[in-house]
Structures are given as C-alpha cells and as structure tokens.
Design goal:
The chain has 528 residues and is α/β, with parallel strands linked by helices. The chain contains 18 helices and 16 strands. It is an enzyme of class 2 (transferase).
C-alpha cells in the first residue's frame, strides 16, 4: 500500500541519510528477533518481514511492514504501515494503518526502527482476540484517497480495553477545525509506557478545556519541571502566545506539541492584545507562556490579563516553577514574610529610592539581577543595607550549574569584585531586625569620623558616609566633626556639606565679570 504522502515525499536530508545508514549497519549486525529486512536499493523505504512470536495468537504468521522515512528523520517520525493483508488486531486497521502512540505524538528522535519493530511485536503478542477496531469500516472508507495515518489525530486509552469496551465512533469527539476521524486506541504496552508518562490524557478523562486565557507556568531550566496539566492545556489550545517563539519552540518540540505559536512581548503587547482579545471573544483557548516561569511575574502577561478581566473573559492560572520561590525555599532566610522586588530600575535615582525602602523593611527582600550588574548591585546594597546584612545569591536554579552563595553583603561585594558570573541570578537579602534602632553616642560618631579621616577622606565626605550608616541627622554629625577635627584640618573643614557655598559662588561670579571687562577694553583699544 502506498499513501499520497509517501509518493510525494522529499529526498532525505544528509542527517537522515547518515542516521539510516548507521541503523542499517546495526540491523545487519544485531537484528531484532522475529524481523527480517528485505534489502533494496531504496534507503528511504524499508520493507520488513514480521514473524509472529511463538505462543501467541500470531505464532508463525508472517506479515510485511512498510517504513517510509521523511526528509527530516529522526526529528520527524517515519510512516509505518502493514502491507495488506494486515494482521487481525484491535489496533490495526484493514488498510494497514497502526494505532500506536510512538508512531505519532509520542515519537522521540532517540527511537530507531528496531525499537519500533519490538514495540509492534509486543503489541501483537499482548492481544487476546483477533478482530478489527470497532470503527474499521468507516475509518478505511475515509482513507480511500490515500491519506497517511500521520494525518489522523489519534487518542489513546488503557490497553486493557482492547475488546468490546471500545466506544463507538459516534461517542468520540472531533477536534475543532479538523474533519478527520479520531480513532480511540491503546498506547504501546512496553517501550512507550515510559515515554508517555508525561503525555496528557484525553479530555474524556480529564474534563474539557474551557475557552479562556490560560497563564501557563513553564520550566525555568530543567524541562522536566512542567506539570501534566500544563502539557494538556498547551496541546488543547488553539494558539500559544510566547515571549520568544524560538526559545519556546524547543520546549514544545520536546513534548511533541504542535499548537501554533504567536509572539507576544513588551514591544507588541498593545497591538497583539486586541487581536488576541478578539480570538478569545470568539471562544478560542489561548495559552500564554513566558521564556521561563510564570507569565506576568517579571514577564509579559499582566496587561493581557487586565484586558480579559475587564471584558469578563476567564483568566485561568496553570501554576508552575518560579525562580524567586525556588530560591527563597532553599535560601535559609525567613519565609514568613518577604517582598519580591524583581528587576530594579535602570535609573540611579529610582533604583536608590527603591533600595532605601527595602533596606528599612523587616521582610526578606528578593531581587532579580542581571549578571553584568551584580557587582554594582552589591556595592549599592552593602552601602544602604550595611556590610553585615546576610544575603543569598542563587544562580542557574534547576540547571546543571545551579549554585547558592551564602554570606554577608560585604563578603559578597568582595567575592564578586574580580569576576562576573553567568546565568540567571536571584539575590535574597535578610530583613532589618525588629529591635529598636539605638542612635550611636557622640564618642562613637567621633571614632567613626576619625577612622574615615585617617584613611584619607575629606571632612565633608566622612560626614556623608557616617550619616548614611546611622539614623543621626547629617547636621548633627557635621557639628561634631567641626568641633573635634575642624582646627586640625584648617580650611578643609570650612565647607559645610549641608549648605551651598556662597563665597565660592561670589568669587566665581567676580572672576567672570573681570574677564568680561578685560575683553571689552581690549576690543575698544583695537577700534581706536
């Protein structure tokens, strides 16, 4: 039997040719038991003889498999059918089409022709009855024009219901915008059982996915950190909105999700939002994902959620990983109360204002920091929070090079002064102690001023640094400094850092006037 897709197939890519030649050599050395490859000069189509296993309903019966390889094998599954007459089996149609999950949605590039054959033989061996699928006649009729089995949308159920428990065709649902029948078949009993643990179950078991906006959490590093519910929503959606379609495409390909992707990011969210809103009003299921973590948490999604709320469109969260929650849970700092700040402003004034507020809060403070700005961040926080404040720097969470650095802000500033780390960084800083702040005594202030002046700081700079580290007003500290150190520093102490210097302004203006007058006299002399 030859399908339309097989006759119009494209030539194999170089990767596919190399892979098939390697598999062919391995097959000749160690062929799977019960199978024989019929050698031809066509690498793109293999014909394989199958012999039923002893002690089964198909013992010593011989059938032929036809395997057609697509251009981009093994990234794409081959088309595998029985050449009629096909075995009588509850999951094999009379036209040779096979209802086996690893040939479709559960295909993995790591699989080979040998593993396919072993899985098919296992399926035959586990059968307890020789009969066609319940919907065989209707399905075969719909395939008369040479439709490939890969064009069919298959649902799989428990292999135990292989006899009369199969539902009739009329009880099965049809996917929106697809005219193809959806046969209801079993999954592979052996090899595919491990591969399909993460594949969502059909809606008939889980309940239908209702129209609305789904905010789906995605892994922050390790692709295994995704929920079954998230996979089911992503497969059921009409469209997936993604911050970076190339990045998200890797995740979707890993889980064989073929839902269309549409870009949605901060540069197009205003325009794209209205388009998406229209589709939601028409009853579509829209999933929104970010590059990593939960949409709307330091990522696009907030504005679209607001639009949907205003229009009474359901907004459904599908919980998933979040870097700051993972970092907090493993930080060892207080989790009773915390403040998630996220990314700070690029503007120094706004950034310092936010850090000043955080420095005085009693809750654990959590920040996202770009790696190239980590040292600057540590300099600013150690100055405002204090060098002895505890902190945790979490890097590359859930990835191979995951790292938790623990210490004080002063130690962190020193540790990261000579090298710039790589990867995603979350910084957690312990909250300010609840104990009342005790103002330092005058003698303590004098000691701090003396240390700073001795190390080379001017009087005004020393006053500024001491004031930033205490609750004492700068004017008070300046008075103490002037009284204690004014005479020994002479004119250096005459400048009050709290007030504009009038004398300097007058002198500057005087010099400007004299310069202008000299220029006037010189000009008039030339004219005379």
């Amino acid at each position: 039997m030859t399908s339309s897709s097989a006759t119009s197939r494209k030539a194999l890519s170089k990767i596919a040719c190399n892979r098939l030649q390697k598999e062919l050599v391995e097959w000749q050395v160690n062929p799977p038991a019960g199978f024989k490859h019929k050698v031809t000069d066509n690498l793109q189509r293999w014909v394989i003889e199958v012999t039923g296993a002893p002690g089964t309903l198909y013992a010593n019966e011989i059938y032929q498999l036809q395997v057609d390889f697509p251009e981009h094998y093994p990234m794409e599954a081959p088309q595998v059918i029985f050449v009629p007459p096909a075995p009588l089996h509850p999951h094999i149609y009379s036209n040779g089409h096979i209802c086996l999950d690893i040939l479709y949605d559960s295909w993995s590039p790591a699989m080979t022709v040998s593993s396919i054959c072993i899985s098919i033989l296992s399926m035959l061996s586990s059968s307890t009855v020789k009969q066609r699928p319940a919907d065989n006649d209707r399905y075969v009729k719909n395939c008369r024009n040479g439709r490939s089995p890969k064009e069919t949308t298959w649902w799989f159920h428990d292999d135990k219901t292989v006899q009369t428990a199969q539902p009739s065709l009329h009880s099965l649902s049809v996917c929106p915008n697809k005219a193809s029948i959806i046969p209801f078949c079993s999954s592979s009993p052996q090899i595919s059982s491990e591969l399909t643990d993460s594949i969502p179950q059909p809606p008939s078991k889980q309940g239908p996915i209702e129209p609305g906006l789904y905010l789906v959490g995605t892994p922050i590093g390790n692709l295994e950190d995704i929920t079954l519910r998230a996979l089911r929503v992503l497969k059921s959606a009409h469209v997936i909105l993604s911050e970076d379609t190339r990045h998200s495409g890797k995740l979707l390909h890993h889980y064989s999700i073929k839902t269309p992707l549409l870009s949605y990011h901060k540069f197009n969210e205003a325009q794209r939002g209205q388009t998406v809103l229209k589709r939601l009003k028409e009853g579509e299921i829209v999933a929104l994902i970010s590059d990593a973590g939960m949409p709307g948490i330091s990522d696009p999604g907030t504005e679209l959620a607001k639009l949907c709320v205003d229009e009474n469109i359901p907004v459904i969260p599908i919980p998933g990983p979040s870097a700051f929650v993972a970092a907090l849970s493993a930080s060892g700092l207080s989790t009773d109360e915390f403040t998630f700040v996220g990314f700070l402003s690029k503007h120094a004034g706004s950034r310092r204002e936010r850090l000043t507020v955080s420095a005085n809060e009693a809750t654990t403070q959590i920040f996202y920091v770009p790696p190239h700005k980590l040292h600057q961040f540590l300099e600013e926080t150690s100055s405002l929070f204090g060098y002895s404040r505890k902190c945790v720097i979490a890097r590359e969470i859930t990835k191979i090079h995951e790292e938790f650095w623990r210490g004080t802000l002063g130690e962190a500033e020193e540790a990261y002064s000579t090298h710039q780390p790589k990867g995603e960084i979350t910084v957690l800083i312990e909250g300010r102690e609840d104990s009342p702040v005790v103002a330092p005594s005058e003698s303590q202030l004098e000691d701090e001023l003396r240390d700073l002046i001795s190390s080379g700081h001017s009087l005004s700079t020393a006053v500024k640094l001491v004031a930033e580290g205490t609750s004492v007003r700068r004017k008070t500290i300046y008075s103490i400094a002037l009284k204690k150190f004014g005479k020994q520093l002479g004119s250096q102490s005459d400048a009050d850092p709290c007030k504009p210097q009038i004398d300097d302004l007058i002198l500057s203006n005087y010099k400007a006037v004299v310069h202008a007058f000299d220029f006037y006299l010189a000009t008039n002399r030339r004219r005379v």
